[in-house]
UniProtKB/TrEMBL annotation:
It is found in: Nucleus. Pfam families: Hormone_recep (PF00104), zf-C4 (PF00105). This is Thyroid hormone receptor beta. Residues 138-377 form the NR LBD domain. Residues 159-178 are annotated as: Disordered. Keywords: DNA-binding, Metal-binding, Nucleus, Receptor, Transcription, Transcription regulation, Zinc, Zinc-finger.
Amino acid sequence: MERSMTKYKFGTPYIPSYMDLTNGPEPCVVCGDAATGYHYRCMTCEGCKGFFRRTIQKGLSYYCKWNEECVIDKTTRNQCQQCRYKKCISVGMAPDLVLNENQRRAKRRLIKENRDKRTREEMLRQSGLLLASRLTEAEENLIKAILIAHQETTYLFRRNSTSSDEDGGEPDTKRVKAEDDKTALMNLAEIMTPSIVKVVEFAKRVPGFKELNHEDQVLLLKSCCMEIMCLRIAQKYDPDTQQLIFSNGMPLDKSELKQGALGELVEPIFDFAVGLARLQLTETEMALLAAVLLIAGDRPGLKDAKSVELLQDTLLTAFQHFINETRPTTPVHWAKILMKITDLRTISARHAERLLCIKLDKSQEIPQLFLEMFDDCNTTL
């Protein structure tokens, strides 16, 4: 019982009696009409409030034709002003609370000043938020360095191109059309090796990464390698042909990729690519997203997680400020980008599970090159 009373006392918001219409409106103490609040120290309706104010402000006097014994209610209140005023006084309405003209002007002026003050404070508050969300010079330099690192370690294959900077020749689509899983995995490993090297090069150019603990650098690369590779592959998704274009310019569709041992990852990678295309990320946003995937303070096993978290906070703050400035009309864009991190981590986790199954069930059929690549991510720094 005591607990329920306490809950009622502290958990239920206070509602003035005249606003609580559960049992109907509060009656005016003068005429019985619906009261609108306390006016001149009594619960009255708007009509009696105005009548009392006008009487005091104008110094009006009234005369009753019926010996000042009139009954004042909702229907008769306008028939005898003298009895109505007498009842106002008898129920406790205070004439001294009625403001004169000078007092009313002062009150209106005070209300206006308070309103203007709140407006100025709100403008200052919003200005402070806008200033706080603007890019600093240090953040601009950080973003520029990450963008350059991204541009110099990735190659966006042009559609309808017949050659690539990485391979220097026509895409060899025959390499994925292997007769057995072992050969397909070996070919896939050869295709992905240059991409892994580029991820490592990108990481080394991200400001602050090389200052982290060396073991943490290796761990961060192991953890994010598949995520950044998926991001870069998805960046080259061709919505017209519904194909992924690898770094060597080789276009592949779902049917070709599903033939391999990692075929069950194809569907989520394609779904991610389609969703990423809808966001229409700029190259700068793509570069910053890759950097955030790399610098993640929640990776298990970090030796100096605090240093990683500090660098991560710096990156995220700069990234958010960049979004605020470049996309001021789409505030949800930032949240949508962060959701893509979750999608990539899910794909990476499924990739790790699949590799473990391959090691346990088909270890003799898997090329050692493929397993070694994802075991250490070529993390020779």
